[in-house]
Structures are given as C-alpha cells and as structure tokens.
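About this split. The held-out portion is used to measure sequence recovery: a designer receives only the structure tokens and must propose an amino acid at every position. Recovery is the fraction of positions where the proposal matches the reference. Here is one held-out target exactly as it appears in the evaluation file.
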C-alpha cells in the first residue's frame, strides 16, 4: 500500500469529499485525488484556505472542484443532510469521503482540560465524521464502489499522557470504523477504513512538536500512495482496517 503506484485515471469520473481540505494533508489529498481524475468536494471552515486549494486544482487543469464552507464543530444533523442533498443535486453521486478535518488544542494534562474543550474536540474528530458519513450513506450505497477513509493518529492507537480528548477521540474513531465495517458487510460496495498518517510536515505537527525541524519529516505528498490505494478500486474488499500510511505499526 505504501509503495502503491496509482494509474493516472484511478479516480476518473468519481466524486470524493475531503474535509479539512484547506491545508496540510487534506490539501495534498484533494490535489492528489483531482490529479487522478476525481471531482473533489472541498470542505472546511476557512473559505480563504479552501479557495487556495481550489485554485491549485483548477490551475493544474484537473476536474473543477466544488467548495463547501462548514464549521464541523457547530454543524448539526440538518447541516449534514443539506450537504448530502446538495451533493446529490449538483453532482448526482458520491464515491468517497476522506475525513481529515481535526481539532487539536495544546497538549495538556487531563486535569487542565475543560468540558468545553472536550465537547469541541470530540465533535470535530469523532462526532462529525460519524454524522457526515451517516448523512451521505445513501449516496455511498448507490455508488458501484465507494470508500470512506477516517484519519486516525498514533496517539489514538496508543493512548498517551497529555494527548487528552484528541487521543480519546481517535481511539473511539477506530472503534467506529470497526463497528461500521461489520454493519456494512451486507453492502460490500461500501468499505470503511482508518489511516494513520504518521509524522509529516503539517500545521498540526508544528503545533505538537514545535522544536522539531520540519525538513526532517516527509511532506504530505509522500504519503499519498496509501490514500490513493484506499480511495480507489484496488482496495476493494479491504474494510474495517486501521492502516499506517508510512508502513509503521
């Protein structure tokens, strides 16, 4: 998976939704999906950043993306249902979702985290991926081959001091993936997996490891083979798995 070489037309004619598409891994994934033929739906709360990703895709001559601005921390069921309706009305289909948006506050002991922080972090990292996937599930089931990809974290796989609500949310996200994969066994055209990006140059990494030299880490583009493999048809039959984009467990 990590050395996967995707054909240029891997995602041709597919529609893929990417949350957190304005920067970092989300932006790299949106560009990569578009470069392989997908019409990408860019979702985030910062319109300026989304516009920058839009321009990069359009300037490269890839299929024109669609832009949705939404604050996942504040969104409710009706917002997600309206988005699903808009996708069906404008594009007529949905073949995949990459849940990449995240909220991570400063690392701190649990005793110093507030209820407000916990609620916000859980809503972005756990509740929104669930609710958005649920709202889009009819569209995904209607697709001949659909993939839902959640973004986990090494600190979700191995709970660690000071990672607080974020680590707990990612741990629960992996349970969500495994549960949903079992429930989707009767609709094998829809698969769901979680991917651990590992350390890469990203805004989140700079926040958690400020003393780290960025050039010592791979760029997000380096881990895109794993994203392409899991989003494309070559990963049919792979579901309910927690995988590592850099081949390290």
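Reference sequence for scoring:
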């Amino acid at each position: 998976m990590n050395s996967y070489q995707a054909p240029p037309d891997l995602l041709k004619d597919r529609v893929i939704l990417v949350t957190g598409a304005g920067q970092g891994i989300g932006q790299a994934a949106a560009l990569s999906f578009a470069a392989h033929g997908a019409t990408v739906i860019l979702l985030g709360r910062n319109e300026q950043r989304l516009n920058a990703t839009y321009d990069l895709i359009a300037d490269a001559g890839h299929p024109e993306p669609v832009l949705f601005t939404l604050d996942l921390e504040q969104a409710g069921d009706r917002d997600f249902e309206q988005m699903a309706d808009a996708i069906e009305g404008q594009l007529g289909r949905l073949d995949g979702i990459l849940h990449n948006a995240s909220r991570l506050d400063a690392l701190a002991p649990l005793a110093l985290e507030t209820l407000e922080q916990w609620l916000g972090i859980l809503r972005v990292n756990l509740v929104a991926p669930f609710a958005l996937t649920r709202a889009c599930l009819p569209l995904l089931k209607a697709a001949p081959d659909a993939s839902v990809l959640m973004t986990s974290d090494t600190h979700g796989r191995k709970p660690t001091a000071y990672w607080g609500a974020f680590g707990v949310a990612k741990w629960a996200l992996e349970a969500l993936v495994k549960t949903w994969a079992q429930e989707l066994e009767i609709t094998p055209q829809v698969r769901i997996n979680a991917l651990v990006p590992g350390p890469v140059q990203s805004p989140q990494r700079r926040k958690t490891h400020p003393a780290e030299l960025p050039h010592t880490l791979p760029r997000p583009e380096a881990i895109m083979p794993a994203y392409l493999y899991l989003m494309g048809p070559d990963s049919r039959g792979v579901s309910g798995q927690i995988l590592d984009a850099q081949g390290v467990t």
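Annotator remark: The chain has a mean pLDDT of 92.
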